Amino acid sequence: MPAHAPSLHVETGTGTGSARIRDRVARALLVLAAAGAVAAVAGAVGAVADAGPATRMVETWRMLGFGVFAGVFLLLVYRPRLYAGIWELAILNKLGLTLAALSFGSGTDGAGVALIADGAVTLILLAAYVLSRGWTAWSTARVVA
């Protein structure tokens, strides 16, 4: 084959390069979300330590939930198109918390903070999901019998 033979691999201007950029932006957003979740864990340590018997368990559950979400976000950073259903569960959870905070309003302690925090995370997750095309994880998911 002559040295000047054309390559069979063709890249378009909107293909691989823009997909890499979208993935980098999506991953940066997910790292931001994970960092926020880690910060929430650190912030919740005091709430657990100060909690009385009536709220100690729920504060511990909340703190550990932040840790789980930090891990979920980091898994999505690592392989954004591998975990079918994880994107959607995370988005629905954060959207649900945002809507709950909105519906509870100022009459509920912490609703305003949750509205802002979970609302921001919902938007971050939606942007990262679209940028990384997270739904394509479903096309590679296999059921093992």
UniProtKB/TrEMBL annotation:
Keywords: Membrane, Transmembrane, Transmembrane helix. The chain crosses the membrane at residues 28-49, 61-78, 85-105, 111-132. It comes from the Bacteria. This is Uncharacterized protein. It comes from Actinomadura alba. The lineage of its organism: Bacteria, Bacillati, Actinomycetota, Actinomycetes, Streptosporangiales.
